[in-house]
Model the fold of this input.
Amino acid sequence: MLLRGVRPDKRTIPRIITACRLTHCLPFGEQLHAHALKLGLSTDNYVITALIQMYGHLNSADAAKLLFDQSPRENSVAWTLMVKLYMAEDEPSLALHLFNQMVVDSRAKIDPVALGTALKACGRLKSLQEGRNVHEISKKCGLEFDLLVSNSLLKMYMDCGSTEEGRAVFDRMPSKDAISWTSMIGGYVKEGGFNEGLKLFRQMNFEGMKPDSLSIASILPACARVAAHKHGKEIHGYLLRNGTNSNITIQNAVMDMYVKSGSIEYASKIFDEFKERDVVSWTIITMGYSLHGQGIVGFELFQALEQTSSIEIDEPAYFSVLHACTTACMVDEGRFYFGCIRSPKVTTCILMVALLARAGLFEEARLFIEGRQIQHHTEVLRALLDGCRIHQNLMIGNQVIEKLRDLEPLNAENYVLLSNWYAGLAEWDMVNKTRETMKNLGLKPRKACSWIEFQNKVHVFETGDVSHPRSNEMTCKLQCLTSEIEVEEKERKICYSDFIFHDVEEEQECDPIRHSEMLAISFGIISTEAGTTIRVTKNHRVCSNCHNYAKIISQMLKREIILKDPNRFHHFKEGSCSCRDHW
Done:
């Protein structure tokens, strides 16, 4: 073009500069910049915008800023581009500062893209006040209900943890797209508002807005709970009916949902039907089997993954197989896979301590803890304490409890552990002294509670609870079961209690059949048809007495009982538990 004497104009130069940016050719772009100067086009808005974009992508935002500072201030596109470039370089503070300068400079027109970018910066900074300021600017510009701006406002409030303000924006929006619904649903789920998220998902369908893969991915975590397994099945059914189940990310999310809602069989079925699997698929199913007490199955699946040469095994995958080794108490295998992790995090080291402690290798666990210098992490000590409980190692257990109290002097559960320890040794003076200390410090231990879903309503029970409308029926059922359980206990010679290592105070002094998990199980028995699986969640580790009772009840009534505590799922079936009595 130049050789033929054709003079480039303000439309040609920007297009060639854009080509330089897309082909990552900075030297030629710099030559074009020189041509623009010679041709007197360097002050043209289109040329300046193209140059800023090129320098920002191929050099740096600072290089683009030098050019921007020399450009006309009324070029709103250039302002917006600079804000976006700072965001691309993960400099939200600089992006927001530049946007505020743009607002002050009345010559620049604020557009939806500039507002959206500024709101993204506020969300990344978690600055709710700055976000509110930008919201006010959008109102003054008459752009609050522009779809891009409204969606950006919604996401900003969600990112800043202000669900109520986000919902207020959502409710006022004159029109909504899938992004609007997904942001609001995801915000509720992220903050633990699972029921609100599910209601909104149903409303989204009712109003004719078809959920996309992102919408589905945002709602599935709300179903990844024992009490919401029915909702998870409904959403899975929706995916199958609408043919949107082929995405590997969605398939992994569905499988993870089934794992966490207590349906490992469904998760396994989905895994078997995968046409292709990635490392996330293998990690979810390996961890899933481990969480459901089937560590050996998880370990064997991981061995199958190792034979799949096309998949690179990452640290989360190694963590999942180490978890499986811990569940199955496979010490040698656990040592091997721990050694495969280049830079193990503290959480991974905790898992290794748990494996050694569960195997009764307390001296090796001690040396490991000291070698890794993790003795001041409370979760490490709690993992060690679990081993003491399993092997009834009273000496080390006492030392661990004392260390926990020293590290967390204001954690009520540590004092409960100590109180139960003294109670187990019949040292009642020390029990009273420990409780007095808790009272003086104003410490209140977390109450034990369990919950069960029935007819779309979650029923919550505390220890010794008599407030439920069907409390009398539940008590009668428990009393009937108790007499049979006592006979069974004598035959099995069961007379074991682990309260010496328990962190729930009120359960120590309460009849075991009045513990929250037993009340929830009783409610499930009287409320559902014979043979129906009972699904219960508890916020504390299940005690040994209730664990034994649940095993016997599952055999007596020919029912499967799935009980989830903070650490794992217990599948009670035909008189045994999936954890093999190690939990």
Summary: Residues 237 and 245 are 10 Å apart (CA to CA).
